[in-house]
Specification:
alpha/beta, Rossmann fold, about 40% helix, about 25% strand, globular
Length: about 160
């Protein structure tokens, strides 16, 4: 089985989750940042995992563009979805559902909330002002959900090989 993890990360949380996920899948896995030029041909993969982070209630436009441009191929593959977000429970699940096109959410074999990280030092000036006005964090926050990474990796490993 060959797996593609296509993601977009703004400050590194989703990138960290994608790397951890790749290490736990135990299959031939390619990790691809959607910010990079070019992309692997989806035809060579059996499973495609797509992830991004939530800012201002939305996922990055590169993730949505990738999904829309590759709609036909994604619908012919096993697809899983994940987001980095600090929200959990119903609000987190709503963000996960709204992040991806409805046709892809309905098609996905797995969906996970991976948690998130907040490093005040890494934030742009505008993001730092917004975060401090909304959340008032006194320090950096690390809330990556290792169990969510484990669940998604297990779901991929449980898929039948070709």
């Amino acid at each position: 089985m060959k797996v593609l993890i296509a993601y977009r990360s703004r400050y590194g949380a989703t990138q960290s989750c994608a790397g951890a996920l790749a290490r736990k899948i135990s299959a031939d896995t390619v990790v691809h940042d959607l910010r990079a030029r070019g992309r692997p041909s989806l035809g060579e993969f059996d499973v495609i995992l797509i992830g991004g982070s939530i800012y201002g209630g939305k996922i990055q436009r590169q993730v949505v563009s990738f999904c829309e441009q590759e709609r036909e191929r994604l619908l012919s593959k096993k697809a899983g979805l994940f987001i980095s977000s600090f929200y959990t429970g119903e609000r987190g699940m709503a963000q996960l559902q709204e992040a991806f096109p409805p046709w892809l959410s309905a098609h996905a074999f797995a969906r996970e909330l991976m948690g998130g990280n907040l490093s005040l030092e890494k934030l742009s000036l505008l993001d730092r002002i917004l975060v401090r006005s909304l959340v008032h964090p006194a320090r950096d926050i690390s809330a990556i959900q290792a169990d969510a990474i484990d669940r998604l990796a297990a779901a991929v490993r449980a898929l039948p090989s070709r």
